[in-house]
Model the fold of this input.
Amino acid sequence: MLIKIVLVALLVFVVFQLFRALYLMLKNDPNQASMSKHLGRRVMFSVVVMALIILALAMGWIEPHQRPY
Done:
């Protein structure tokens, strides 16, 4: 159950970073941080989420659904 909570928290953080980048893009303030910093974080945490899912499946912490047929 803990692994699922961690995955959901990471996915929420990914969406948060996406909206932060959107806000910076629309604001267009030269004194603010770069939009690419937030997009880079989003990509990095997306890779972490995918690696954590693959690791959790390999270790047996989570189980995929059975095939429907």
User: Anything to note?
Assistant: The chain has a mean pLDDT of 86.
